[in-house]
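Quick illustration, no need to memorize.
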Amino acid sequence: MKLEDDFSDIVRKARMGQGRSVEAIAQASGLRAEDLSTLERGSRIPSDSEVRAIADTLSLRADALSAIVAGEWDPSMP
């Protein structure tokens, strides 16, 4: 049973929780809206630069989000 959210879940929930559109986050992060939508669907793995741009835009911890993408996340990470 899957217990933790993956990258796409976290990004989508953070964006929606902030009441922001895909287009607004894409513009603020320098990504194309189509690319952000693809990442939110989990259709491809994001690059490190995409992870960092999205994390910065959504005020998420980039290192933790990168670790989640790499499958190396540990809940005890600071």
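Helices lie at 7-17, 22-29, 33-41, 48-58, 62-70.
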